[in-house]
Amino acid sequence: MPVQTDILIIGGGLAGLTAALHLQQSGMEVILIEKDTYPHHKVCGEYISNEVLPYLKWLDADPSVLHPSIISNMQFTTISGKVISTRLPMGGFGVSRYQLDQFLCQKFLAKGGRVIHDTVSSVAFEKDNFLIFTQSEHQYTARQVIGAYGKRSAIDLKLKRKFIQKHSPFLAVKAHYTGEFEDGLVALHNFRGGYCGASKIEDQKINICYLANYETFKTHKNIAAYQENVLYQNKHLKSLFEKSEPLFDTPITISQLSFGAREAVIDHILMIGDTAALIHPLCGNGMAMAIHSARICAELLLLFFKGEIPDRTAMEKRYLISWNHHFKSRLWMGRALSALFEKEYLTEKLLGGMVRLPFLLPLIIKKTHGHSLTVTE
């Protein structure tokens, strides 16, 4: 017999865990299926805007217990050596996914949630319920399924999502380091074919994560050769790597990153976090967006199950409206900025304009960030 639950969440990353914690503490029965055991590293910039702090505290998941770095300033550099700096309008903090995901998982378990380490192979919607099958040949039924499995998955092929059919030229590389890096700073360094973000996380570690065009990357025999021949053309990146010692045996990577449009609802599954949309890393706000999307989803589902939203169609429509209201313009800005920064000439022109008009950079940052997620009981 299938195991029954109110809500089944596919994927235990930041969005999935946040939604699970919110729903479980609000009285729902939640099962979360995650293929990997905790803790584990993920390719991620590991900077979070302070916009989500009130919400995390409301969830009894205040990240301050993890001793994150406090980040208040941003720096942007180009290959030619131009530098522009500004204070972040809201500020943020740096914490590794290795620590944060484990922390949220333990909070969820402490509230009675269930985490199952398995891989979902298929989801079917029949008679207003979901039937879920896993690779371990287990079956579950749920009143609602949430997709939070990340940037891409075999499930996307089963659901026939359009973005998964298209080739994407982007590859991301991430590792932790020890070395010299300014406190309170998140830095974004442009190079030919991509850009690299760096900031401190807990324990004075430095997270360095970059996005590269695979066509330029594959012409080099390995990551080290690519970094030395391409990233080092930006003198700031060269200095950063030369003054740092890696803490990973090898960097971790993810390929086929797609920043195109995705469906936030498909076959009645509500998508959250990167599963719903992937914002360009140069915006530095993917983690906050994942947490915010989890909150939107959880709040609407609670209204639906209480009968305050009359039916599933109305609930899904409200989710799409809310998603577009909060994220559509931010995603557009991310794509626009990425298109500019992929062209060295345009990057230099844009940076030159921001040097002459310093108010432009904080304005751009505000366009990719949201408002503080205050919570009322």
Features:
377 residues; alpha/beta; FAD/NAD(P)-binding domain; 9-stranded mixed sheet; 8-stranded mixed sheet; 29% strand; globular; FAD-bd; Geranylgeranyl_reductase; Flavin-dependent dehydrogenase; FAD binding
From the alpha-carbon coordinates, what is the Rg to the nearest angstrom? 21 Å
How far apart the termini lie comes to 38 Å
Give the oligomer, counting copies of the same chain as homo and different chains as hetero.
single chain
User: Uncertain spans, ≥5 residues at pLDDT below 50?
Assistant: none
> From N to C, what is the helix and strand string?
EHEEHEEHEEEEHEEEEHHHEEEEHHHH
Description:
InterPro entries: FAD-bd (IPR002938), FAD/NAD-bd_sf (IPR036188), Geranylgeranyl_reductase (IPR050407). This is Flavin-dependent dehydrogenase. One of its GO terms (molecular function) is FAD binding. Residues 5-308 form the FAD-binding domain. It comes from Pedobacter cryoconitis. This protein has helices at residues 14-25, 53-58, 97-110, 154-158, 214-217, 223-229, 235-242, 286-305, 312-341, 344-356, 360-368; strands at residues 3-10, 30-34, 47-49, 69-77, 83-94, 114-117, 120-126, 129-134, 139-147, 170-179, 185-191, 194-200, 206-213, 244-246, 252-257, 265-266, 269-271. The two termini are 38 Å apart. The strands form two sheets. Strands 3, 4, 5, 10, 11, 12, 13, 14 and 15 form a nine-stranded mixed β-sheet that branches. It is 34% helix and 29% strand. The protein has a domain at 3-49 and 92-166 and 258-344: 3-Layer(bba) Sandwich (FAD/NAD(P)-binding domain). The chain is built from eleven helices and 17 strands. The chain is an alpha/beta fold and 377 residues long. The relative contact order is 0.18. The model has no long low-confidence stretch (mean pLDDT 88).
